Amino acid sequence: MTESAPVDPTTTDAWKNLAAIADGFSPDLRGWFADDALRAERYTFQAADLTVDLSKGLVTEEILANLLQLAKDVDVSGRYAAMIAGQHINVTEDRAVLHTALRRPKDGEGLVPPKGFIVDGQDIDADVHATLDKVYAFADKVRSGEWTGVTGKRIETVVNIGIGGSDLGPVMVYEALKPYVQAGIEARFVSNIDPNDVYEKTAGLDPETTLFIVASKTFGTLETLTNARLAREWLWAELSAVGVLEDTDEARKGAVAKHFVAVSTALDKVEAFGIDPENAFGFWDWVGGRYSVDSAIGTSVVIAIGPDNWREFLAGFHAVDEHMRTAALHENVPVLMGLLNVWYTNFLGAQSHAVLPYAQYLHRFAAYLQQLTMESNGKSVRWDGSPVTSDTGEIFWGEPGTNGQHAFYQLIHQGTRLIPADFIAVANPAHPLKDATGDGAGVEPGQDVHTLFMANFFAQTKALAFGKTADEVRAEGTKESVVPAREFAGNKPTTSILAPALTPSVVGQLIALYEHIVFVEGTVWGIDSFDQWGVELGKQLALQITPAVAGDAAALESQDSSSKSLIAKYLELRK
Ligand code: F6P
């Protein structure tokens, strides 16, 4: 443990002031906007290409001043500087936390820390760029057709096998950047140990044109290694079935060499699996799994979108890293958003946080953020081992708009819970389709559909902020008994994030933004946002329970009574 005990945020004057403000707090977004013509301007900020409007949040100058003071009291800036310099701020694993180093430009001037900095004896920049160059060279070979399968055919499908950070990041980015995917190359993602996953994802594939990427930081994850073995067996069986694989170990080894590559920090284990270390791409223990999408873990995406787009993606991250490092606290977007989340969570009682991208290509973004935010900040002890002094973590969830509008927005608008929501949209869609016909009832012939889409984005944040009063409902001629049901209280906080287009850079910017929001919240709460001990117990128990589930009577007998009867029922049902 190299870090000193965290500041207890609840002992600061800022925290006490915020608690006093929260006591009897009665937000009034209608009034606040009416009284302050500059409110939107005052609370709209820029981070790289992201325009972020916090004005529809439940924030006032007094609240903001205290939140900013809190950030100073817990030294958010100092801890961020320590993180990017390679201090072991992941104290429970005694590791540096250097995902920001994954996207430092190769030839950048004026980098902080300076180019060539050494951490624990490692030249970080040199290693990052050597690996990136190796990934780029491999991706170019696959994309050009120089890399072929064992029968000489070019690769058409890349199947990433990984879970958690070795899956959620790549699949989210692949989906987000679909318009950038090279024609003739498709990526699929296998994660679940449910055998139906690997079955479905290999269904219909041509073994001669399929490349598997086994992505696992530890190369010890049960799901991934099981799926990798299943995929290897599938490859051998399918190649044999079409008569292109001899029945020899040598031939099987040759097939694996051409159809399997790996990404891991444990290259010895990669070799033991039978993958040529030449075809393995490394990363390092200072990259957390959920912070690893911009490491070699993204190899499937590099193949799909190409090195040039990947460089742009990394540049997007770096732009927001630089914003986080250099922008003054009062205009620092990740700091402001992280602090607002603390305000909602610790003072206004919010328990969950919706992320609502008005961009269908971001349909996996909330799932990705769930690991990033909840595995990072779902903690009950602080980095010195003492109990936390406040609630931590937020339950992140969401779906793209407008789909969510027709599903769960009702609860956000009129339910009893406070659910802060981030609305994310881009101005220019990849495919700007027009509705040639229209409907003659508001949708004109030739209507730009993105305009309709964005009208929903703006309408929702407006409705959530300003609601609809009983008098406004009455004025529409609603009968009195129904007026309460049709009233909207308003004062539901939202943050609006707008970008020019969903480019590789913008996707990188969005990810970095949320990484740093997580960091800010974790720092306030005094927790190590970079370990994940909470997932270990279930993993251990799954292995211990397997014999009982397989039917071993003695193992079944040793279970607690609930597990025993459930497993017995399962065994009875299982044919
Ligand atoms: O179980 C949690 C976890 O350790 C995540 O943090 C990680 O992203 C995931 O498992 C996969 O781990 P690996 O990349 O080592 O297979």
From TrEMBL:
One of its GO terms (biological process) is glycolytic process. GO terms for molecular function: carbohydrate derivative binding; glucose-6-phosphate isomerase activity; monosaccharide binding. It holds the Pfam family PGI. Its EC number is 5.3.1.9. InterPro entries: G6P_Isomerase, G6P_Isomerase_C, Phosphoglucose_isomerase_CS, SIS_dom_sf, SIS_PGI_1, SIS_PGI_2. Transmembrane segments: none annotated. Its main location: cytoplasm. CDD domains: SIS_PGI_1 (cd05015), SIS_PGI_2 (cd05016). GO terms for cellular component: cytosol. Belongs to the GPI family. PANTHER family: GLUCOSE-6-PHOSPHATE ISOMERASE. This is Glucose-6-phosphate isomerase. It comes from Agreia pratensis. The lineage of its organism: Bacteria, Bacillati, Actinomycetota, Actinomycetes, Micrococcales.
